[in-house]
Amino acid sequence: MQKRVEHTATVTRRSAVRLMAGGLAGALGAACGRREDADAEPPEEAQPEVPVVSDTMAAQPEQPAEPSSEFARMLQAGEVSSIRLIGDSITAGFLCDGYGPNTDMLIYDGPYGTFFETAYEVGCWANEFRAYATEHGVGSFVNAGISGAKMRWLAEDADAWIREGADVIFVMLGTNDAVYHTTDEYRDFAEAGLTAVEATCQHMVVLAPPDNAWTDYSVEMSQTDVEAVLRELCDVYGWCFVSMLEALALGTDEVNPDQCHPTTKGSHALWEHLREELGLA
Description:
Layout: H1 2-32, H2 70-76, E1 82-87, H3 89-92, E2 102-110, E3 113-118, H4 125-135, E4 140-145, H5 151-156, H6 158-162, E5 168-172, H7 177-180, H8 183-198, E6 203-208, H9 223-237, E7 240-243, H10 264-278
Parallel strand pairs: 1-4, 1-5, 5-6, 6-7
Antiparallel strand pairs: 2-3
Helix pairs in contact: 4-10, 8-9
C-alpha cells in the first residue's frame, strides 16, 4: 500500500509541473504575439446559437381591447359626431364651482319655460365629459341639464328638450320626480319620455340618478325606487342602462349641505363612475 501511495504522489507532482509549464508558455506566447504552429489545425469557429421560438412564444401584435359598451364601441369607431345630455340640476352643475352664467345655446323651449346651457367653465361632470368627448372626435356636445327638471317634462313634450337631437343621448332624470310623483306615475312618465328620446337618436344611455338624503324636501319615492323603475324599463326595451345610485358618498365633501347636489369633487366622482361603467379609456 505504501508504494502505491508514493507512486500516486509522484504522478500528481509531475502533472502539476506540466500544467504550470504549459500555462507559463501560453502566457508568454500571448504576451509576445507568437503565432500558433502552422501545422496545427485552427480551432473550429463558434457558430452563433439560433434561438428556437415556438408558436406560443412568437411575439404577437398587441390587439386593442374589445369595447365594453356600445357607446365605447361607437366612439372608438368614429361613429359619434354629436352628444346631448338631458338632465336636471345635477347635470347642469348647480352648486358646483363656477355655476351661474350660461351660454347662448338654447336647450329647452316649451311648456316649462326657456333655458340655456350651463357655461363650459363650470366644474361639473358634464363639462368633464365634454372635454373627453371633444378629444375623441365629437364635434357637438350639448349639456341640456336644467335645474328643477323632471322626467314628466320629457313625457309631456319631448321635442322641446330633444330639439336638434344627437347621435347619442344620455338621460338622467328622477331626482325631482321623487319629490312629487309616485313610483307608478314615474314609470309612466319614464316610459313615454325615454321612448320618444330613443326614436330620435342612434343610441340612448339611461342613467339612474345618484342617491341623496334631501334635507329640504320629503319624497314620494326613494332613488332606489327610481333606479328600479329605470332598470326594469331598460330590460324590457333593451336600452343601455347605467346606475349612478352609489357614485356619491353622502355625508362627505362630495355632496353639498343639502345632501343632494354634488360639489365639484362629487361631480368629478360621477364622471369617473360613468367613465368606468362605459369602459372609456
